[in-house]
Design the sequence.
């Protein structure tokens, strides 16, 4: 039975009453925070840092050009531009404009933001440009001629939707339509895959390749190019967030399912072999492969033998499966990239990064270590096609980000750019500790604090967490929190709780579905450990999280309100009995459970923050943030939570922006305002 919801009307995105309520909430929050004398200078400082020309301009390399998306005071929406590697190496700022987003937005009178630019690998002067209104997930796709500097009128142009569109070659694309009128899943994602071939006058040829069932979550399709340029077209049909089937597209447009386990991800393709990461154990051809493994699977090993001897439904192994990375309790595969000759794997080892390469030697894969820093976090930044080059970033809490260019074949590398230090790190230390969860599990967490912090419980401390979707929380340079939090006497904590991906599939699955509350317990255990160590106290302790992390901090607030004095709950899920009815919510049933199922509904009801707000609880003044353009997590979650808190006699703050979407895709001025507002709130709650 669904409980009565007096605030259902706040889910409406076009109701004048709901909008008037939001406007009043925004005004009250701004009256309190924006009027604080610290807000304006703080916003200006953060904006100046964002627009500092010494910031690393990350790039994607295509055909000898380095392409970068840049925002500054003159281009608040952004400028897509390019330069040469030689100029970049020399530290020059000589960029050639390619596409001016501000000019387009002004000419078309649209609130355009750039969601991405996809170059055709073998003809990179052709690109698909993805535009989003207000930063939402739905995009408009238009083909752009880089050399001409203009859109192609009769090119590949697709209407607004949550589509998946990928180049096949210069004259064709794989298109999964997500626009209005196309068959969509319950979650609002594509159900069909089409091959679209370029035609004269924009009259393109459409060939339907695949249709997913009505109960599916979404489909996607793309083309891999092997080292010799041989193509492999793949369809990913997701029945739910984690369960999917992969299909090969044949030269005759036929499709054939690959007999991979449902919980597995194809991470790449090289030398005729698929790189497959397992989330479940897999029994295949008489062998057992464990969850968490990264495998190199020769394509013939998955392809039924078409000869008469191989017919009858049985797959005949014509290749092999080799384990590249075996699962380990404290190590997991974070990401995979392929170069012209090698597979490069980014491993999380004890919550720090380590890169390793695999090369084909005498028909088998051989591992070798790569000479990269091993004390922080590595992220792949770029891999230019048909090269052995990997560009990666490296940083930790106190080390500014550096951009490295590594030749995987030779091991030679160079630092292309280094971000300027935002603060003097010598005054601080970063430590790794662990808390003990209720079931005895050690929960790692990081603390960044002053080198001479006195452990008397007086340190204002912000704790951040996520704990979902197998997403790991890893150290990162605290470029804004350094000068504006650490230098003011605060400490920062990053909790690596279950539900995340720090230690592979088992760490995630321990807090999945009906076990979701495990992540809340882990987060609370870290908070209690901070207090027990004397770093902070409930009066000085705040928590922050966004999206699934918003669910985390919302749940912890209603469970243990006396433990925290600040809660920053950003673009959150909070009504877990209706989340599947709101926007993309139905796509997350695998992660949380289905409220339409009686047993799973009971588990959701047991922790749904919106339904556990109580009149007499000592909740701190919490700050909830959302966006009217968030078409992934409905702003109704935050709206209704604030309304219920206020109706039961609690103070609560809401800021709902007009742009930014779920991921904060906004102009730099808005980004600076949002961060300054959070900091002022934290000052007031934890420092004043």
Sequence:
């Amino acid at each position: 039975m669904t409980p009565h919801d007096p605030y259902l009307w706040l889910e409406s995105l076009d109701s004048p009453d709901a909008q008037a309520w939001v406007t009043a909430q925004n005004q009250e929050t701004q009256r309190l925070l924006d009027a604080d004398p610290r807000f304006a200078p703080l916003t200006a400082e953060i904006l100046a840092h964002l627009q500092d020309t010494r910031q690393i301009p990350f790039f994607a390399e295509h055909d000898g050009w380095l392409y970068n998306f840049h925002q500054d005071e003159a281009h608040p929406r952004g400028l897509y531009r390019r330069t040469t590697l030689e100029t970049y190496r020399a530290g020059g700022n000589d960029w050639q404009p390619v596409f001016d987003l501000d000019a387009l937005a002004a000419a078309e009178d649209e609130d355009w933001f750039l969601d991405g630019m996809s170059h055709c690998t073998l003809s990179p002067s052709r690109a698909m440009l993805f535009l989003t209104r207000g930063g939402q997930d739905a995009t408009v796709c238009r083909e752009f001629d880089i050399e001409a500097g203009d859109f192609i009128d009769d090119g590949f142009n697709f209407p607004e939707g949550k589509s998946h569109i990928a180049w096949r070659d210069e004259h064709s694309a794989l298109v999964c339509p997500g626009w209005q009128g196309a068959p969509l899943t319950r979650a609002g994602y594509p159900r069909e895959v089409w091959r679209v071939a370029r035609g004269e006058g924009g009259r393109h040829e459409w060939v339907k390749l695949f249709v997913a069932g009505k109960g599916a979550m979404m489909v996607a399709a793309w083309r891999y190019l092997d080292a010799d340029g041989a193509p492999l077209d793949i369809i990913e049909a997701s029945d739910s967030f984690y369960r999917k089937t992969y299909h090969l597209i044949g030269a005759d447009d036929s499709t054939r399912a690959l007999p991979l386990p449902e919980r597995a991800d194809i991470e790449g393709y090289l030398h005729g072999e698929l790189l497959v990461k397992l989330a479940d154990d897999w029994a295949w051809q008489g062998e057992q492969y464990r969850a968490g493994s990264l495998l190199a699977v020769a394509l013939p090993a998955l392809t039924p033998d078409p000869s008469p001897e191989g017919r009858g439904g049985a797959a005949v192994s014509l290749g092999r499966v080799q384990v590249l990375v075996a699962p380990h309790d404290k190590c997991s595969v974070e990401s995979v990239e392929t170069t012209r000759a090698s597979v490069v794997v980014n491993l999380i080892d004890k919550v720090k990064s380590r890169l390793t390469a695999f090369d084909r030697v005498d028909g088998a894969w051989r591992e070798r270590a790569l000479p990269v820093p091993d004390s922080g976090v590595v992220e792949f930044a770029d891999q230019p096609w048909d090269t052995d080059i990997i560009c990666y970033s490296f940083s930790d809490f106190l080390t500014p980000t550096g951009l490295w260019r590594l030749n995987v074949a030779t091991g030679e590398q160079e630092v292309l750019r280094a971000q300027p230090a935002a603060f003097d790190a010598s005054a601080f230390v970063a430590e790794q500790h662990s808390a003990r969860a209720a079931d005895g599990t050690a929960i790692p967490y990081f603390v960044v604090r002053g080198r001479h912090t006195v452990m008397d419980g007086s340190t204002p401390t912000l704790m951040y967490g996520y704990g979902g979707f197998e997403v790991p929380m890893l150290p990162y340079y605290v470029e804004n929190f350094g000068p504006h939090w650490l230098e003011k006497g605060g400490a920062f904590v990053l909790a690596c709780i279950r539900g995340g991906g720090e230690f592979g599939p088992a760490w995630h699955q321990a807090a999945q579905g009906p076990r979701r509350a495990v992540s809340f317990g882990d987060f609370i255990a870290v908070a209690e450990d901070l207090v027990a160590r004397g770093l902070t106290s409930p009066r000085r302790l705040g928590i922050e999280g966004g999206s699934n992390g918003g669910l985390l901090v919302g749940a912890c607030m209603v469970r243990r309100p006396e433990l925290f004095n600040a809660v920053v709950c950003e673009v959150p899920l909070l009504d877990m009995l209706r989340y599947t009815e709101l926007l993309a919510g139905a796509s997350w049933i695998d992660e949380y459970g289905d409220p339409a199922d009686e047993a799973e509904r009971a588990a959701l009801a047991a922790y749904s923050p919106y339904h556990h707000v109580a009149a007499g609880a000592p909740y701190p003044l919490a700050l909830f943030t959302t966006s009217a353009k968030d078409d992934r997590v409905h702003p109704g979650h935050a709206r209704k939570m604030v309304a219920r808190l206020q109706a039961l006699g609690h103070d609560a703050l809401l800021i709902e922006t007009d742009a930014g979407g779920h991921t904060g895709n906004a102009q730099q001025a808005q980004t600076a305002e949002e961060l300054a507002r959070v900091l002022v709130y934290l000052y007031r709650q934890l420092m004043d």
